Amino acid sequence: MEIVTGDSSSSDGKLLATITGELVQPVRVYYRMRDKDSLKRVFSKLKCIDFDSDRDRYVWLYQKEAKKLVFKKTYSSIPSRFKPIVIGSFFVKKSNEMYLETRSIERAIEGIVFFDTYIKTYMAEVEDISIVNKVFSPKENTIDFSDFFDKELTINTEEKINKIKANLLGGVLPEKELLPSVERFPSHFHEDGILPVKLSLQSRQYVAIQHWHGNSDYTLADYISELVSH
Q1: Could you give the C-alpha distances from 111 to 20, 167, 177, in angstroms and in order?
Q2: How far apart are CA 99 and CA 130, in angstroms?
Q3: Which range has the worst mean pLDDT, 3-12, 65-74, 158-167?
Q4: Is 21 left (phi over 0), alpha (psi -120 to 50) or beta?
Q5: CA distance 51 to 165
Q6: Angle at CA of residue 214, ends 212 and 216, nearest 5°
Q7: In angstroms, how far is CA 52 from the centroid of its own chain?
C-alpha cells in the first residue's frame, strides 16, 4: 500500500494526498484490448512494471523508465524508505478490456501519455475515462478504491459541454446539474490528444474541491460559466 500524506491547502482541513504530492482522486483509464499477448510482452520488457499475483494485476512503479515523470514531488525528493511507489495498476476484467487505475488525475494523465509510447493501437487503445468526483480526507484513506467504481455512470461529456456552451452564448443560464459520484466518458485521446482529457479531469477536480469547501451546489456549468466570463 502506498503511504499517503495530508495536503493542508484546504482551509477546511487536510486533504488526502499521495506520497508524490497530488490530491487523491481515483481515475480509471479504460483500454480496448486487441492483442493481449503483445501487451504481456510489452509489460515484461518494462522495468517499471511488475506483476502482483496476490491481486492479479500489473503494477506501474515509479522507477526505471517512469523516473522521468514529474509529479508535485519529484522522484529524487522522495525518501528511499517509501520506494518503490505504485503509481498505477493495470487490471483485466473482460476479454477485450483493460484498465489502468490511479489514485490521482495527474498520474492518469501521465500514464496515458507514457504508455502510448509502448502500447501500439493494434495492441490496445485508450477508450474511456472514469473519475470519482470527490476528494478525500486522510481518515478516508483505503487500500482499494475499487468499490467506488461500482457506481460508475456513463455519460456523453462532449454533448453536455456543447449544450452548456450553446446556452451561455445564447444568453441562456445553464442548468444546475450536479455531477454523478462516478462518471465514465469517452477520452477521444487518439483523435484529439491529451489536452482535452487533462482539461476534463482538472475541471472535475475543481468542482470536487468546491464541494469540499462547502459549496455543495457548485456544478460543472458554474465552472464553464466562470471560464467563459473570463
Answers
A1: 14, 35, 30
A2: 10
A3: 3-12
A4: left
A5: 45
A6: 90
A7: 21
DSSP string, 172-188: PPPP--PPPSEEEEE--
| Stretch 212-227: mean pLDDT | 90
Between 171 and 179, the more confident residue is: 179
Beta bridge partners of 101: 28, 89
- What mean pLDDT do residues 152-167 have? 67
Taking the C-alpha atoms of residue 1 and residue 23, their distance in angstroms, rounded to an integer, is 16
SS (HEC) of 147-163: HHHHHCEECCHHHHHHH
Tell me which DSSP letter residue 200 carries. Answer: H
- Residue predicted with more confidence, 224 or 198: 198
Close Cβ partners of 44 (under 8 Å, ≥ 6 residues apart): none
- How much is the pLDDT for 221? 86
**Beta strand 153-154 with 182-186: parallel, antiparallel or unpaired?**
parallel
Q: Residues 110, 111, 112, 118: what is their CA dihedral angle, to the nearest 10 degrees?
A: 120
CA-CA distance, 219 to 133, in Å (whole number)? 11
